Amino acid sequence: MAQIQSLAGLQKAIHRQVRARAMTVLRWTVGVVYIWFGALKLFNVTPVGQLVKDAVPFPTPSWFVPALGALEIVMGLWFLTARQLHRLLPLFVVHMLGTFSVLIFLPGVAYQHHQPWELSMTGEFVVKNIVLLTAGLIVCVQPRGILPGLPATAAHAQGPAGAEQSRGEKVGVGARH
Hints:
- The chain is mainly α.
- It has a domain of 121 residues.
- 64% of the residues lie in helices and 0% in strands.
- The longest helix is centred in the N-terminal third of the chain and has 41 residues.
- The protein is globular and about 65 Å long.
């Protein structure tokens, strides 16, 4: 019986730790992925450079992929800072929707036998961006450190000078989202 209680206590402790840190880890993960992939593009060592060029419906100059990489690095750093993430949201959404252009403009590359339900390796690579899109959306719209769907703890509900941060209420000067 004591083992069951200690196991239940351990489970609760792990749950508290995960809940306290999950949004921060998710935000860092999105930021690091953006910086990493952006650096690969910036230094022209990405395996997807030609795919990126081919997936846009306009001619791309030689600087297009490195410039996209620089933008991704800036976006990644923005995620890491956790400041004003709601302002990053429109740029993030446009960028992520752009990643799905492969499915529209390069169906021969994205699908096997031109069947949308038969993804190629490239198609699977692109469709997995749904996870990154969802993670970024959650990070950008949630108050800092609050997991969606869970009630805010007293520590998370109070921002600087006691300003409410949960559920979009007033936020004090200097509060971060």
